[in-house]
Design goal:
The chain is mostly helical. The chain is built from 21 helices and 7 strands. The strands form 3 sheets. The protein has a 3-stranded antiparallel β-sheet. A two-stranded antiparallel sheet has the order 2-3. GO terms for molecular function: 7-dehydrocholesterol reductase activity; cholesterol-5,6-oxide hydrolase activity.
């Protein structure tokens, strides 16, 4: 439910294709115009059970020391009732509501009230006002890219408090973890409901709205493409890239502080989780302008899937490794720790360099060097919804000659490293790699189905040249 990678194979467009992007986009991208029964069943399942999945994981840690099977066994054997478990669950508190309101307000202010200055002194960083991709209605939105600045300011204040100011305990997030969950759910449902009403009654751009006639699908997948308030507050960029992801590293730091408070030390496993996930978060913010060209911003509408997902699913389930290590501190052997670190760094390298090669290829229209050589390409042609023919190129060099989605492979390697840092005592910290494997495999297959329809026989030539999707020689 959060951004992970770019979509489909690396390609460049002919200069004339941009003018027809609206018709092409409506024919090939975005959420559905009509809903089949399987999609509707999937939507209803997620709307009903996703919040309970999050609650179950967090409750299992709080009441059952991170065992995923113990709560279900207790209920099945009659040793506990649902009402017993619920009675032990911390409720929403005034303190948590105040903390969460202050947090979101602070991030909104950093987003809309403080123009980016990092790009003025950080070589290679692209910040400030940047343009997004062309929307289906033919609009090019402008964004204030200042996520790295928001992250730096937030974390400088966190460390200043921890070492000098002592306004609050570094364990404050862990100590209010479940009450904050209720606050996150309130915001997630509130913003999703507001986005739906806005799409019906006062959309930012009516031509960028999609209606299926099915309430549940509209609510989950969104109606508006880019709901905005004023000139700069873009719902999609803010919720994808502010409260949840900025908080990700703070949550891990709070878990580390709690581990030290309870057990007298911060283990090397906790350090690895903090470092490896911080690399991913910093990569996201360093490349925030690049993120404007990803599937989340370019093709997804804003609904419950992004609104609630970024408020609840991301901060609560992407941080399970750190939470687990509070309850089960793991001190890895030197070889184990080194192996986890190497896997995480290698995964990040593959993820980043694959995306860099794609971006370089697109920006230069193929006039570049990939691994020191002129890139190999497959010339393709496709027809947009208005009947116009366009020419493009698919890259088959570098990482994109090894597998068709090797950026996803690197992402999965990093995800596995987070989990392996927790040892093998419980299943719970491995949820992340299981979820990411399903998510990215589904996205991979969805992208390929779309590309096959788009490019036809040219796509068959491409898959013959690069026969594997994720794992060379296997899949």
């Amino acid at each position: 439910m959060a951004a992970k990678s770019l979509h489909d194979a690396p390609k460049t467009k002919s200069p004339g294709s941009i003018a027809n992007s609206r018709a092409a986009t409506q024919g090939q991208w975005g959420r559905a115009w009509e809903v089949d029964w399987f999609s509707l069943a999937s939507v209803i399942f997620l709307l009903l059970f996703a919040p309970f999945i999050v609650y179950y994981f967090i409750m299992a840690c709080d009441q059952y020391s991170c065992s995923l099977t113990a709560p279900a066994l207790d209920i099945a054997t009659g040793r506990a009732r649902l009402s017993d478990i619920w009675a032990k669950t911390p409720p929403l508190t005034k303190k948590a509501a105040q903390l969460y309101t202050l947090w979101v307000t602070f991030q909104v202010l950093l987003y809309v009230a403080l123009p980016d200055f990092c790009h003025k002194f950080l070589p290679g960083y692209v910040g400030g006002v940047q343009e997004g991709a062309v929307t289906p209605a033919g609009i090019v939105n402008k964004y204030e890219i200042n996520g790295l600045q928001a992250w730096l300011i937030t974390h400088l204040l966190w460390f200043a408090n921890s070492h000098f100011l002592s306004w609050f305990s570094p364990t404050i997030i862990f100590d209010n973890w479940i009450p904050l969950l209720w606050c996150a759910n309130v915001l997630g449902y509130a913003v999703s409901t507001f986005a739906m009403l806005k799409g019906y009654f006062f959309p930012t751009n009516a031509k960028d709205c999609k209606f299926t006639g099915n309430f549940f699908y509209n609510y989950m997948m969104g109606i508006e493409f880019n709901p905005r308030i004023g000139k700069w507050f873009d719902f999609k960029l803010f919720f994808n890239g502010r409260p949840g992801i900025v908080a990700w590293t703070l949550i891990n730091l709070s878990f580390a502080a709690k581990q030290r408070e309870l057990h007298g030390q911060v283990t090397n496993a906790m350090v690895l989780v903090n470092v490896l996930q911080a690399i991913y978060v910093l990569d996201f913010f360093w490349n925030e302008a690049w993120y404007l060209k990803t599937i989340d911003i370019c093709h997804d509408h804003f609904g419950w899937y992004l609104g609630w997902g970024d408020c609840v699913w991301l901060p609560y389930l992407y941080t399970l490794q750190g939470l687990y290590l509070v309850y089960h501190p793991v001190q890895l052997s030197a070889p184990h720790a080194a192996g986890v670190l190497l896997l995480g760094l290698l995964g990040y390298y593959v993820f980043r360099m694959a995306n860099h090669q794609k971006d370089l290829f697109r920006r230069t229209d193929g006039r570049c060097l990939i691994w020191g050589k002129k890139p190999k390409v497959i010339e393709c042609m496709y027809t947009s919804a208005d009947g116009q023919k366009h020419h493009t190129k698919l890259l088959v060099s570098g990482f994109w000659g090894v597998a068709r989605h090797l950026n996803y492979t690197g992402d999965l390697m990093g995800s596995l490293a987070y989990c392996l840092a927790c040892g093998g005592g419980h299943l719970l910290p491995y949820f992340y790699i299981i979820y990411m494997a399903i998510l990215l495999t589904h996205r991979c297959l969805r992208d390929e189905h779309r590309c096959a329809n788009k490019y036809g026989g040219d796509w068959e030539r491409y898959t013959a040249a690069v026969p594997h999707r994720l794992l060379p020689g296997i899949f």
